[in-house]
Amino acid sequence: MLVVQPAQPRTRSRGRIGLAIAGGGPTGGMYELGALRALEVAIDGLDLTRLDVYVGVSSGAFLAAGLANRIGTAEMCRIFLTGDAEVEFRPAMFLKPAVGEYLRRAAGAPRLLLRWAGEALADPMAASLGDLFSRLGAVIPNGLFDNTDVEGFLRRLFTTQGRSNDFRELERPLYVVAVDLDSGKAVRFGSHDWDDVPISRAVQASAALPGLYPPVCIRDRHFVDGALRRTMHASVALDKGIDLLLGVNPFVPFDASRGGKRPAGLDRLAEGGLPVVLSQTFRTLLQSRVQVGLEKYARQYPDTDQLVMEPDEDDGEMFFTSVFRYDHRLKVCEYAFAATLKDLQERRAQLAPMFARHGLRLREEVLDGGPRSILDGVSTRPARTETSARLHRSLDDLEALLAHDARIERKRARRRPQRAG
User: Fold this and answer.
1) What are the φ/ψ torsions at residue 175 (nearest 5 degrees)?
2) Which residues on adjacent β-strands are paired with residue 43?
3) Are 61 and 207 in contact (CB under 8 A)?
4) Is the pLDDT higher at 159 or at 93?
5) Is the pLDDT of residue 421 over 50?
6) Among the listed residues 143, 144, 138, 130, the one whose alpha carbon sits nearest the alpha carbon of residue 109
7) What pTM, to 2 d.p., does this model score?
8) CB contact set of 257 (below 8 Å; sequence gap of 6+)
9) What is the mean pLDDT of the chain?
10) Residue 72 has what pLDDT?
């Protein structure tokens, strides 16, 4: 499903494009990869590794940081889907038990019990089991899983092949949003006051979903998932004066009334138990914030076209796929890829003029060319040394510069008055 907010432009577009990617857990990240791959395949002139600003939240921060580091969608497919990459991606690293957190909390239990027992002996009338249970909350771990291996994977990925783990060394601005647990305020890693934090560490903090992962300590402050404040934080990109906003939100509520596919025997969502109820509640909150935000942005940024990609609300494929079923990641990517191409095809009459304003063109041969796979064009990549990787990036830069000059020349040619023959 595409959510389109056409601009009411008062000025000519400079072709400045921003990308905002929301969170959504591992499955949401795979949906986002599929949708972004479809955009890159279907739109001529769009290079997602050369946009003007990137904003990522939670799982979206993984993709935003990769794109800002010149890792294109084809290469991401090799990393996350085929395993054909210099840095190995192991899904199990997201499910590593937080043993250290368990032990640290458990070590505090005897001291807590002794203190309560001492207070109970001193004043038996004031002691209660309710007070004891309340205090025992301090020994419950902050998270089930340890995401330090995730940070290590990103650190290795961003320090090879000519990439950088330093916000200040990137060619284009990248902002990774997390929430300061003690103040409840959003922090933009990559902004002036926070650009010295390693990108891998910022992504780890942004993806620290409370309950699943412990808060991440940076500068003696603890950070959790950035989606707690806003879903996409698209205003971070819009404030940079972009002409076109591309957004991806993988979390929408499931509309059971529209006859969407669901597991056998599950006639009502309430029958799915607490996990399904919480999932529907969480998704409803996130999408409502996206809708409110887009309506507000249409008023605040009237010169900016906005295009947000979301799953269809009656699609059970996304809703009922467990966020930790990594064996389904190719299936989810293929679904998002095909659904996004279908949406672009069905709404090309509305989208073509909007894209043209920014120097982009829908590839009719892709939209009308029949079924495609997300892995089309994702060939096996030969191993590269650091030197050859840097040379490849330089050649890409030269190719992009020549293509940019050619587009400018074509625009000038169209503006020149025709001479009489």
Assistant:
1) -125, 125
2) 362
3) yes
4) 159
5) no
6) 138
7) 0.82
8) none
9) 82
10) 93
What whole-number distance in Å separates Cα of residue 340 and Cα of residue 30?
13
Please state the φ and ψ torsions of residue 320, each to the nearest 5 degrees: -95, 0
Mean pLDDT in residue range 227-252: 89
Q: Average pLDDT, stretch 184-205? A: 96
36 close to 334: Cβ distance less than 8 angstroms: no
> How many angstroms separate the CA atoms of 292 and 158, rounded?
35
| Spatial distance between the Cα atoms of 228 and 209, rounded to a whole number of angstroms | 9
Q: Tell me the one-letter amino acid at 56.
A: G
Exposure letters 264-294 (e unless 16+ CB within 10 A, then b): eeeeebeebeeebeebbeebeebbebbeebb
Which of 400, 306, 232, 270 is closest to 2 using CA atoms? 306
Beta bridge pairs of residue 361: 44
Tokens 């990108």 correspond to 199
At 23-44, the pLDDT tens digits run: 877 888 899 999 999 999 999 9
pLDDT-derived band at 203 (thresholds 50, 70, 90) equals very high
234 in Cβ contact with 293 (< 8 Å): yes
Q: For 236-260, what is the mean pLDDT?
A: 84
| Residues 6 or more apart in contact with residue 380 via CB below 8 angstroms | 84
Residue 361's SS3 state is strand
Spatial neighbors of 347 by CB under 8 A, at least 6 apart, are: 2, 4
- Report which of 404, 57, 104, 33 is spatially closest to residue 202, judged by C-alpha positions: 57
User: CA-CA distances (angstroms) from residue 176 to 55, 107, 148, 207, 284?
Assistant: 6, 34, 17, 10, 23
Closest CA to 329 of 256, 269, 250: 250
Task: Determine the average pLDDT of the residues in 342-351.
Answer: 94
Among 390, 397, 398, 384, CA closest to 162 = 390
Contact (CB, 8 A) for 93 and 149: yes
Each residue of 108-147: pLDDT tens digit? 777 777 776 777 777 776 666 666 566 666 666 777 889 8
- Element holding 156 (H helix, E strand): helix 148-157
**Spatial separation of the C-alpha atoms in residues 58 and 19, rounded to whole Å:** 14
